[in-house]
Amino acid sequence: MSVAREQVLEVRDLKVHFPIRGSFGRTTGIVRAVDGVSIELGRGETLGIAGESGCGKSTLARAMLRIVEPTAGRIVVGGEDVTAARGPALRHLLKVMQMVFQDPNDSLNPRVKVGAAIEEALIVAHVAPQDRPHRVQEILRTVGLPYAFARRYPHELSGGQRQRVGIARALAVGPQLLVCDEPVSALDVSVRAQIINLFQDLQDQLGLGYVFISHDLAVLRQMSHRVAVMYLGRVVEQAPNQVLYAQPLHPYTQALLGSVPLPSPKANRARQRIHLVGEVPSPSSPPPGCPFHPRCPIAQDVCRNEVPPLRVIASGHHVACHFAQANVWAGGERVGQA
Amino acid sequence: MCAIEPVLQVQGVSIEIPTRHGTVHAARDVDFALGRGERLGIVGESGSGKTITALGIMRLLLPPAHVTSGRILFEGRDVTTMHPKDVNRWRGNEVGMIFQDPLTSLNPFLRIGIQVAEVLEIHRGLSRAQAMAEAEQLLRRVQISDARRRLSEYPHQLSGGMRQRVVIAIAMATRPKMIIADEPTTALDVTAQANVLDLLRDLTEAERTSVVLITHDLSVIADFCERVLVMYAGRIVEEGSVDEVISEPRHPYTQALLNSIPRLQGAVGRLPSIPGAPPDLTRELQGCPFAPRCPVAYDRCRTEVPELLEIGPGRRAACHLAQPIPSNITLEGDLAE
C-alpha cells in the first residue's frame, strides 16, 4: 500500500520494557509495555493504531518521540536512525516529528498566552525574531483560528479551540509527521468532527504523515489509510482500512469490532454482539504462546506454546494468528472466564 | 411517552448556578416521565444539562447550584420538598447510582466485600455474616469470577470493567426501583463496555428496574435504551423512541449530531461537522439556542424560543420547523427500512 511512497518513519522490532522495582530498588519483574513492534509510514499517510488500555499504544508513541527510552529495536525517521540520538540529532528528530496529546492542557502552560506558546516552539526551531509574529499568525490561520486568539489564555478557549492550539504548536517547527495520541477523545461529538476534518485538511495541504492512536475504531476508520491493532504490547493485525474493517482475520480484531455499539438500534439488533470475556493479562506476566489465547474461541495447543509471528496473508495484510480466519465468533458462545 | 405507571415525573425543572460571571442556566424547564422498567437515555454534549438534571433529581446538587422551579415526583412523592433524612433513605433504598469513574464510588481503603456488605447492612438490616454471604452472591450475579476471593480484595486490584461491575452490584443491592447511570461505560474499553451494558440490561430487566442512562454517545443509547431525550444548552430539544429519533430525527441538532458520528460501516467521506460551539449558558435565551449553528434557521428562530411540542405519538421536538404529525399518518421512514 505504502510501497511507492517516500517513507518517513520506520520502526523495527521496538521494545520498551520497564523494570518493576521492589524493596531496596531491586528489580523484581519486567513490564513488557511494547514487545517487538514494527511499523512504517509513508509521506502523507495515516497509520491508525487501535487497542484497549494497557496494550502499549501510548508507550509506543512516547518511545517513537524518545520521551521514553526504547529497550531494543530501531527507529528511523526521514532516513536517519534516531534510536539513540542525542543533542543536535535529537533536536532534529523533534523538528521532523511532533506529538499531539489527548488533553491539550497537558502541553499548554495555563499562564502563557496562545501566541507566546506558539512562539516558544518557533524559537526552538530557530525562526528569526522579526519573522515570528507573522509565523504565529500564519500557523493560527492554518488551524482555523483568528489572530486575535494569540492574546488569549488557554482557559479562555473551548476544548476544540484548545486542541487547535495544541496542533498549531506541534506544526510550528514544520514537522513532516505528527504522532497523535487520542487527539479527539476528550472532545464533544459535534466538535470532534471539526478536528477530524482539520487533521485531514492539514494532511492534504502539508503532506503530513500521522501515526493516529485511538481506542475508537470508527474514528480510526475515518482517519486512517492503514490500521494496526495492538494487544499486550504487540501488533496482532495490520491491514489497509478497507480490508481490516471488511475482513478482519484476527479473533481479537473481530471481538473489538463486534463490541462497538453502532449508532443505529436496528443495526445493533441485527448483528450478534461478541462477548470478549476475561481480562487482558498483565504485561509483566504475559501468557506463554499467543498473548490472546486465554480469551480466544479457536485456541489450540499450538497457541498455548508458540507465539504466532506476524504473517503476510495478502498484500499489506499482516496477522499474528496461527489460525487466521474470518468470523471465528460466529457461534457467539462465551469462552474464557469472567 | 410512558403510558403506564410512571416511576419518575420531572415537571418543569430549572436549575441555576450563580457564578462570578453571571447565573448559569444549567437546566431550563426540563420535563419528562420515566415508566416502570423503562430504559431512558439522555444524550447531550458537555454543558447540555444532562448530568446536572440527574443530580437535581437525586437531590445531589452542590450549592450554589439549585433547583429554581419545578417538581420531581418519585412514585407520586415530591422529592424536591422531602426532608434531608428522608432523602437519604429514599436514595439508599429506592434508587441506585452508577457514575463514570467507579473509583469515585468505591473507597480505595476498604475491601470490596465490606463495601457491598455495608449497603446490605444499612439498607436491608442484615447482619455482617448474612451481608457478606449475600455480597458474594451479588458479585456472582455481576459475573465476577472467583467471587469469594474478590471479597477480600481492594478496588485497585480489579480491572476497570470489574470495578464498574462491583458498583453495579452495590447499586442493585437494595433492589432499587430506579437506576441513574451517568456515563457508566465512558471510562471503559469497548469490550468491557459491551459486557457492562449487557449486564445492566439483564439485571434491570429481571427486576423491572427503570434506568436513566446519561451519555454523550448516541451509539450507547442506540444499543441500550428504548426512549431518548436529546438535550442542548440545558433544554430537552427532542424526545421519542430510540428507533424513531435515530431513523427520523426531527430536530436539526439531533440530525447534525447523527451525521457527525464516524461510522464502522458504509462509505467513508468527509464528516459533516457542526460549525461553532454550544452557546454561553449565562445569557437569557433570545431565540432557539441552536439557531447560530443551525443550517435551516430562519428569522423566527433568532427571536422566538421554540417550545417543546408534541409532534406525534410519543414524539416531542423544540423546533419551529418540526410540524406536528397528524395522528392518522404513520412515520414512513421507519417502515421503509
List keywords for this structure.
heterodimer; A: 338 residues; alpha/beta; Rossmann fold; 8-stranded mixed sheet; 4-stranded antiparallel sheet; 12 strands; B: 337 residues; 13 helices; 35% helix; globular; disordered C terminus
Characterization of this structure:
The complex is a heterodimer of chains A (338) and B (337). Chain A has helices at residues 57-64, 87-96, 114-124, 132-142, 159-171, 189-206, 217-223, 241-246, 251-259, 265-270, 301-305, and strands at 7-21, 27-42, 46-50, 72-77, 80-81, 97-100, 177-181, 209-214, 226-231, 234-240, 311-314, 317-319. The radius of gyration of chain A is 21 Å and the shape is globular. Chain A is an alpha/beta fold and 338 residues long. Helices cover 31% and strands 23% of the residues of chain A. The longest helix of chain A has 18 residues, at 189-206. Chain A has a single domain (7-319), classed as P-loop containing nucleotide triphosphate hydrolases (Rossmann fold). Chain B has 337 residues and is α/β, with parallel strands linked by helices. Chain B has one domain: P-loop containing nucleotide triphosphate hydrolases (Rossmann fold, 3-Layer(aba) Sandwich). Chain B is 35% helix and 23% strand. Chain B is built from 13 helices and 12 strands. Chain B has helices at residues 50-57, 84-94, 102-105, 112-124, 128-141, 147-151, 160-172, 190-207, 218-224, 242-247, 252-259, 299-303, 332-336, and strands spanning 6-19, 22-35, 39-43, 66-74, 77-78, 95-98, 178-182, 210-215, 227-232, 235-241, 309-312, 315-317. In chain B, the strands form 2 sheets. An 8-stranded mixed beta sheet of chain B has the order 6-7-8-3-9-10-12-11, with helices on both faces. In chain B, strands 2-1-4-5 form a 4-stranded antiparallel beta sheet. In chain B, strand 11 and strand 12 (315-317) form a beta hairpin. In chain B, helix 4 crosses helix 5 (128-141), helix 5 (128-141) packs across helix 7 and helix 7 (160-172) packs parallel to helix 8. Chain B is globular and about 70 Å long. The two termini of chain B are 23 Å apart. The model of chain B is unreliable at 329-337 (pLDDT under 50).
